[in-house]
Design brief:
It is a single chain. The protein is of the alpha/beta class. It has helices spanning 10-21, 62-71, 107-115, 122-138, 140-145, 151-157, 162-177, 186-198, 212-226, 271-277, 286-290, 330-333, 360-374, 435-453, and strands at residues 2-6, 25-29, 41-43, 49-51, 57-58, 77-79, 83-87, 95-99, 205-208, 230-232, 237-242, 248-253, 259-260, 264-267, 299-306, 317-318, 324-329, 344-349, 387-395, 420-422. Helix 1 (10-21) runs parallel beside helix 14 (435-453). The longest helix is centred in the last third of the chain and has 19 residues, at 435-453. The chain folds into three domains: 2-37 and 212-295 and 402-466, 3-Layer(bba) Sandwich (FAD/NAD(P)-binding domain); 102-200; 299-395, Polyamine Oxidase, Chain A, domain 2 (Alpha-Beta Complex), CATH 3.90.660. The radius of gyration is 22 Å and the shape is globular. The chain is built from 14 helices and 20 strands. Bound molecules: flavin-adenine dinucleotide. Flavin-adenine dinucleotide is lined by residues 6-12, 29-32, 37-39, 52-56, 236-237, 268-270, 273, 299, 301, 348, 395, 398-399, 424-425, 433-438.
């Protein structure tokens, strides 16, 4: 069967890959001239790469890891030491670490927390541990129920001292959804903590060895096209055309008003463009009403090249800065960006609501002030580190803003329209708005299609295994 998919981010690419595995012919239509959506990357005139986001792969990403293995590119993931490193704002230029020993979960996580004495006192650790008990004992059903509270509200309810939020969870909320603990749903942090504490390598982190578009999207496209699928860039969906029975008749593209007709259709667009494109006749259906409650959150990704090495840390860092979220010196962490004498910092600016409309110059000036606190030795005296160049990538609507109550707005991959399916990190799947969530959503959409129409008879059938 021919299946038209709008959107070549990870969800669309994953959906196309698994449909091709099942013997179908995916036709992937991407609005932009670059693959990858929120993992898109570009080369500048000097040959340096810059990206939509600093991306971390976790041990707790089974579907993503399986995808790397199916593509034969596992060696492109550069796994780092099993630790989490936080800057200490009160002692500029120093770090506090949560080191996970090589022991089974949850013992390794508990030891990592108990051994860290810089950030939390013993009474705080004990109160936090007790607060977490219902999540550990009751599991996912409790975690889902807590979607009615923000993380700050949940911590108060569980009598966890405010300092625990300030020390650890502002950084974690910003890293997970680019918002603060008083905004983020408790479900998001409890889900992440559950994975990190219950899987031995759940919180182990890897960096891709180069730009995601080249190192991850291109192999996917080669795979899809080798199986007969098509991937078209500069092919923006303008309108979903309907038959008299409200099923999809075709995808109308913006370019030349071309109509792409297929047997089935998938939207793998982010939720914001999808909301705008839902045909009037579908708007009162629950699934499409539901998504009106979702909206992408702004975030900014910064790249700064310096005339010298600022750090030799080969890992992600939680800045604990009011302006910034996580950052890394990509000249250490990423083989493709390696340099032994110059740093390239990639930093996530979040929450970005107040900054998204500001000029690049204002954003960089504010960031440089923060860097003076993060790397004091390099920004004092007469021999100060020089900023050679920068790139600022703004994403006004990125992953859905995971405030309390959003779980009820996440739609399933199968819609009430018999020839139309949804993929995308915002659709309902057990992972959050993340690369793992996007890959899984694409796989779930492909699985729903295979269940509904069966495997194509044209090629040898391959079992689709959901992890
Ligand atoms: C700064 C930043 C940092 C991040 N860090 C991490 C991280 O460390 N770890 C992690 O797991 N996740 C991270 N994420 C989240 C992750 O990137 C996303 O969850 C994931 O890539 C989303 O994939 P998707 O396919 O669902 O959506 P997208 O990537 O948004 O893909 C949707 C595609 O649809 C296309 N499209 C839109 N409109 C149309 C149209 N009309 N016609 C055709 N195509 C259209 C878009 O151009 C896009 O290519 C980060 C995101 C950002 C922005």
């Amino acid at each position: 069967m021919q299946i038209a998919i709008a959107g070549a981010g990870l969800a669309g690419l994953s959906c196309a890959k698994y449909l091709a595995d099942a013997g179908h012919v995916p036709i992937l239509l991407e609005r932009r001239d670059v693959l990858g959506g929120k993992i898109a990357s570009w080369k500048d005139q000097d040959g340096d790469w810059y990206e939509t986001g600093l991306h971390i792969f976790f041990g707790a990403y089974p579907n993503m890891l399986q995808l790397f293995s199916e593509l034969g590119i596992e060696d492109r993931l550069q796994w780092k030491e099993h630790t989490m490193i936080f800057n200490q704002p009160e002692k500029p230029g120093t770090y506090s670490r949560f080191d996970f020993p090589d022991l089974p979960a949850p013992v390794n996580g508990l030891i990592a927390i108990l051994r860290n004495n810089d950030m939390l006192t013993w009474p705080e650790k004990i109160k936090f541990g007790l607060g977490l008990l219902p999540a550990i004992v009751k599991g996912q059903s409790y975690v889902e129920e807590m979607d009615r509270y923000s993380w700050s509200q949940w911590m108060k309810l569980r009598n966890i001292p405010e300092r625990v939020e300030k020390e650890v969870f502002i950084a974690m909320s910003k890293a997970l959804n680019f918002i603060n603990p008083d905004e983020i749903s408790a479900t998001i942090l409890l889900t992440a903590l559950n994975r990190f504490l219950q899987e031995k390598n759940g919180s182990k982190m890897a960096f891709l060895d180069g730009p995601p578009t080249e190192r991850l999207c291109n192999p996917l496209v080669e795979y899809i096209t080798s199986k007969g699928g098509q991937v078209r860039l500069n092919a923006p969906l303008k309108e979903i055309l309907l038959n008299a029975d409200n099923s999809v008749k075709g995808f109308l593209l913006r370019e030349n008003d071309e109509i792409v007709e297929a047997d089935l259709y998938v939207s793998a667009m982010p939720v914001d463009p999808l909301k705008a494109m839902v045909p009037v006749a579908w708007r009162s259906l629950e699934c499409f009403e539901q998504i009106q409650g979702l909206e992408g959150v702004p975030v900014i990704n910064l790249h700064l090249w310096f005339d010298r090495k600022l750090t030799d840390i080969d890992h992600l860092l939680f800045s604990r800065s009011p302006l910034l979220s996580v950052y890394a010196d990509m000249s250490n962490t990423c083989k493709g960006y390696y340099s032994d004498d110059r740093s390239m910092l990639e930093l996530v600016l979040a929450p970005a609501q107040e900054w998204i409309n500001k000029s690049e110059e204002e954003i960089i000036n504010a960031t440089m002030k923060e860097l003076e606190k993060l790397f004091p030795v390099h920004f004092e005296g007469s021999d100060r580190a020089k900023l050679l160049k920068y790139h600022v990538v703004k994403t006004p609507r990125s992953v859905y803003r995971a405030t309390p109550g959003r779980q009820a707005h996440r739609p399933p991959q199968r819609t009430p329209i018999q020839n139309f399916y949804l993929a995308g990190d915002f659709t309902m799947q057990q992972y959050l708005g993340s690369m793992e969530g996007a890959v899984l959503s694409g796989k779930l959409a492909a699985q729903a299609i295979v269940e509904d129409v069966g495997l194509s008879l044209t090629t040898e059938n391959q079992q689709m295994s959901l992890v």
